[in-house]
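worker-03 picked up job from queue 'complexes'. Input manifest follows; two sequence lines, order preserved.
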Amino acid sequence: MSFAMRVNFVDVVCDNSLKNEYINGQKAGYSFDIRLSYYRGHFLSDIDVFEVEVDGETVKPEDVAFCINGKEFAVYELREAYTEFWRLLDPAKIKVYHLGGLFQGRHHIKIKLMMRVPYLPLPGGVNEHTYMPLDACGEKTLEIQEAGGGQR
Amino acid sequence: MSIKRGVSLYSYQQAYLTGKLDLEGCVKAAADAGADGIELIYEQMPLEKYPDCIYPEISEKGIRTWQQLMEKYHTNPTCMDSFIDSKIYKGRISTFQEQVQMMEQDLKLASKLGFSCIRVLALVPPEVMEASLPAAEYYNVRMGLEVHPRLDLKDRWVQNIVEIARKHNTKYLGLIPDFGIFAKGLSGAQLNYLKIMGEKKEVLEEIYHSFMSDMPLEEIMAHAKEKGALERTMNMLKSSNFMSHYCEPEALEEVLDVVMHIHGKFHYMTEDYKEPTINYKEPVELLKRHNWDGYISSEFEGQRIYHDQECPFVADEVEQVRRHHVMLARLLGEQVIQ
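worker-03 finished. Artifact:
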């Protein structure tokens, strides 16, 4: 990847957002929030690459759900989600299916999120499909929050 | 007929994103600066969210919220920004008809919110704008092509729009020049950034004066190198010629009949109310001389330069816009209240 635009006003991985998710009282996985690192909201179809790495391990895409606007999207569905608008102020919740959840303590979350600036064809690009790439990646170490405690 | 002062809320993007100002706070900041016109990027600061309406839809309640905001601060909607996302589909460029539909969608939203024009981004094809004319008339919202560096008023791309507008003899198509076309060299924000990062004052002063006196970039770089400029200064100089493309203010005169709104781009306002690298004086004088009627909408864009470069400085967007309006008011010959 050569040059990519970066608009770095806020942290991508949100503080205090990591918690275990329960199904029928069993830890079925975990979730955390991410924000869009840009100056203008995006439709989810502008996402070219979305990958999650936790504690150095890449999470399989089929175990990841990307949640906004009351809906959950599988990673492969993002490219078709051209009516789903991600507002700048509203974090997306990322859910990871992982039986047993995460142990109490600190975990390093790394997000690879590459998007297109969908109105900005690059003059002198390789072809008409070359648009300005947007680097909206981020990483942070979060402490897992007690279930039921902290934020919703 | 008069020149009025507005603010694009884009100017407050950092405060908005970090939660220091909400939409109302941004409108208030603009009003406090003495502006009575508000320009909005709807996708940046939408009025509603899930589970209410999600962009591009808006409900009556959302419209009412906006109207109340305008009433409360005695401001008017001036211009809404229209991007035409030609690549929202991963594998293909949106078709011509799809792009026209996006334009119609923006015209409709602008009309519901009371904006009299939309600013269409510089790279939107002229034929998409021409085909959107019936919708613009229907919604009674004008479409202005942004004229932004490195485009200039005389470029073929821009002249196309002028010709189409005159051919149809319509007020619904025209131009929205951005004061960035009257800028020379490194921006005030870049110079400020380099100063903070430890560049020598004499190096920066020489760079500034050399650009103002139209010295060729190669010479400016040679002088800077001789004086021992930092590597980051040299890199910034090297990339400066990509966007920098000074347009003579007189070029405005020939297209003034189709100019519906103006973007007051600025990067850095000094304590004594000067934008050091953008020529405001001559274009504003020209507009006054021709009794141009419309808004100059401040657009502060000097906040991002400091990011990602280990630079601790945070631009004060509210203060920068305030200073910009003191400058504009003085240039317009208004009674200045500070």
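worker-03 released lock.
The longest strand of chain A covers residues 106-121.
The mean pLDDT of chain A is 93.
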